[in-house]
User: Fold Protein kinase-like protein from Ophiocordyceps sinensis.
Amino acid sequence: MPRQPRKFPSSGFETIDPSQRVEEERLRLYGSQDYYPMRIGQVVQGRYQVVAKLGYGTSSTVWLSRHLGDDKFWALKVHVNTLKHNQELDVYRHINAAAITAEHPGREYVRQCHDSFQLKGPHGEHQVFVMTPLGMSLRTLQDMQNDGVFQSTLVTRALDQILLGLDFLREAHVTHTGHEQDLHSDNLLVALTDDSVLSTVEDNEMHNPSARKRAGDGFVHVSHCLLGGAGPLTICDLGQARIGSEHRGNAMPTPYRAPEVILGMPWGNAVDVWSVGLLAWDLLHRESLFHVYDRESEERNDAHHLAAMTALLGPPPPEFLSRSRETSRYWDESGQWHGPVALPHGTKLESLASTLVGEDGELFLGFCQCLLSWLPEERLTSIQAYFHPWLRGKGA
Assistant:
């Protein structure tokens, strides 16, 4: 028998000062009429009762709901009404239609969209995804560690799951990386093993309702942070993923760009493997590999970035240099650097590794070097990286 909606408090919560910007209002391109004015306790599509806000981003807000039919919790990802074409929905449909999806062991490590529908708002239509609620991000978990780094056993376990998930996407001809997004610890979420943390969030919203700010005819709610989760990692945020084997144009956030992207070469799912190499480093070290931010211009920033790569990885091979006219601005025909900025000194990959020592450290460096190659085709594929000796054990 269908569950009756709960009646949530309409008072007793902290009211935030109207002059203070909160949550999505702080985003650079925020438009108040772009977001759906969701209310706690609202029933959507006649079956999902919204019980709490879980998060927000530039293109959506995420809400915890309980299905009135089967009493199950679901996350509702409610997109802004300015999103006229939802690339993420195309990707989910493509994945579900791919022949390999049902059997591939990496499927469970990629977030799935269980349903979608249109929600009519006061200023337009909003696409809604129905998804399994997930726990904290890998970034949040990392911030809770001593010195902000993980033990190597936790990192290898995480990378196992990430690489299987990426191989699932690769087999479906999907590249996770998009224009302003790559694979990083913010879009890797820990799965929940039971609903107790979700029930707690719902009960807290009932007895100690979250703070909110009145905005127009509705409210901007403060999100709950789901700190629970002991399940596997889940690759999220497929909104900028690309379908197909080869792409052109800009991609990836600036400090994480693969060299072929910086230089305007065609790129494919090898950029995801590049991201895994940087992620592996970041999980074990307090300092990222590339500190290349130059506010003067994007052109100068690219020069610093490529200089840092050259110092870390050695000069690029002739085959790489021949793939773009842009390379002549930075290297001569033999790969010697002559770019507009100096090469940084003392930054060989081996000299920067500090967390792991002995054979384990050597295996880790070998793992990174196999993923951070100049030539995309020389990088390990996701499944080859999964079987690397550092992940499979020293005797592998």
